[in-house]
Amino acid sequence: MNNENRNNSLNINWYPGHMAKTKREIIEDMKLIDVVLEILDARIPKSSQNPDIQEIIKNKKKIILLNKCDLANELETKRWKEYFKKNEIESVEINANNGAGTNKVISKIEEVMKEEVEKEARRGRTGKTIRAAVIGIPNVRKIFVY
Fold first, then answer.
1. What's the number of domains the chain is made of?
2. Residue 72 DSSP label
3. Is the residue at 4 inside a domain?
4. Across 86-111, average pLDDT
5. Mind listing the pLDDT tens digit for each residue in 28-68?
6. What separation in angstroms does the CA of 2 have from each of 11, 12, 111?
7. Cα gap 45→65, rounded to integer Å
8. In a domain, 1, yes or no
9. Range of the domain at 72
């Protein structure tokens, strides 16, 4: 067998099993989620976005968490926030190391979910629990109840 045929016959699976498992779990969890908090690196928002996530969460409300905002250029971060706003995506600047901006996340969740909470209240269902998933690279998927 020549080298070309040998290379064509190799089937290398670079996608590690733990990543495939996590993706399946995220897909399953989305049935329970009201809003997705996607963590991106504020210095490289588009480059730090996992394209698989966009397909998985396409019908969910989303808030971008621009992490490491202290390391990013302020003007560029402002431009990214404007870009997301123009595309009808809310965003919050945070610094996960020291907690800066994290107090704004709850406020933003309440803002994004306001219509749904009011709709439930009109039906007589008060005290709706908002379920959020925190996802991003690398595997920061966490589910918490607010």
1. 1
2. S
3. no
4. 92
5. 989 999 999 999 999 999 988 888 888 888 889 999 999 98
6. 16, 18, 62
7. 10
8. no
9. 16-145
